[in-house]
Design brief:
The chain has one domain: Acetylglutamate kinase-like (Carbamate kinase). Helices cover about 35% and strands about 20% of the residues. Bound molecules: adenosine-5'-diphosphate and N-acetyl-L-glutamyl 5-phosphate. It comes from Fulvivirga imtechensis AK7.
């Protein structure tokens, strides 16, 4: 019998808000059973970048990661954010282990080589290459993996990988050993009919409805890659919920049908 595993992804606006972050980590630490946390931090990386005099460049929600920006995201995601979260979880009694995809070679990746735009040090990975046996070994050792948005190219370089994609990939790969539930937590109540009005929550969303709402411009910006990743997981049998970070332990948000 496969056990349930919960994969929670927290976005950049949550990570950047100390009070929300503390509350969501508190709720996360109380989830029973195996669990994995994935965090973004795009906002913190952009702020740090500006402070260092490096202008952030985003194309379709993805960071153009040149050599200097790679150093910034390694510092921000792998250091500042990841270690801060691990320390907080430890204080909450959750035995967190901070990881990038390079650690224990759990998520080997390759530099994106898509034609027109050169994204620089941005990594894509094959889900089949994720070392789920190693991950299961850590989880069986009563550890809670905490992944940041970094992978590696297996040739000595770290790569920047979108945290939503990483969370979806991990959930799909973990389906080999568990029944995965993937929870995307951010600063809105879920997928909304009006992205500025939390009262317009869509409680259940199927793929056809998603396509219509996208065509009508009701779903836009960062919600499009998030839902593409979310439906990719849904298609592989992962339960997916998109909800407000402060509702982590409540039956709230948008469930993918
Ligand atoms: N229909 C919608 N419902 C909710 N949010 C939406 C919608 N369309 C666009 N968005 C925007 O998508 C953003 C979430 O995407 P993103 O910033 O990439 O998330 P995260 O911080 O979790 O990585 C929200 O902040 C919101 O402004
Ligand atoms: C390639 C790429 O764009 N990577 C993202 C990784 C961080 C992330 O995904 O953070 P959020 O969840 O806060 O958006 C970036 O650098 O912004």
């Amino acid at each position: 019998m496969k056990q349930e595993i919960t994969i929670v992804k927290i976005g950049g606006n949550v990570v950047d808000d100390a009070s929300t972050l503390e509350k969501v980590l508190q709720e996360f630490s109380q989830i029973s059973g195996p669990k994995v946390l994935v965090h973004g931090g795009g906002k913190i990386a952009s702020d740090l970048s500006v402070k260092l005099g490096i202008q952030p460049k985003m194309v379709e929600g993805r960071r153009i990661t040149d050599e200097e920006s790679l150093k910034v995201v390694m510092m921000a995601y792998g250091g500042l954010v990841n270690k801060g979260i691990v320390a907080q979880l430890q204080a909450m009694g959750c035995n967190a282990l901070g990881l990038t995809g390079a650690d224990a070679n759990i998520i080997p990746a390759h530099k994106r080589n898509s034609g027109e735009i050169d994204y620089g040090y941005v990594g894509d990975f094959n889900i089949e290459d994720i070392d789920t046996a190693r991950l299961q070994f850590l989880i069986n050792g009563e550890l809670t993996p905490v992944f940041c948005a970094l992978t590696h190219d297996q040739q000595g370089s770290m790569l920047n990988t979108n945290a939503d994609t990483l969370a979806s990939g991990l959930a799909i790969s973990l389906a080999k050993h568990y029944h995965p539930k993937l929870v995307y937590c951010f600063e809105k109540q879920g997928v909304l009919l009006d992205s500025e009005d939390d009262a317009t929550l869509i409680r259940e969303l199927n793929y056809l409805h998603y396509q219509q709402l996208k065509d009508d411009g009701i779903i836009h910006n960062g919600m499009i890659p998030k839902l593409d990743n979310a439906f990719a997981a849904r298609d592989k049998g992962v339960k997916v919920v998109i909800k407000h970070a402060l509702e982590l332990s409540k039956p709230a948000g948008t469930v993918l049908a």
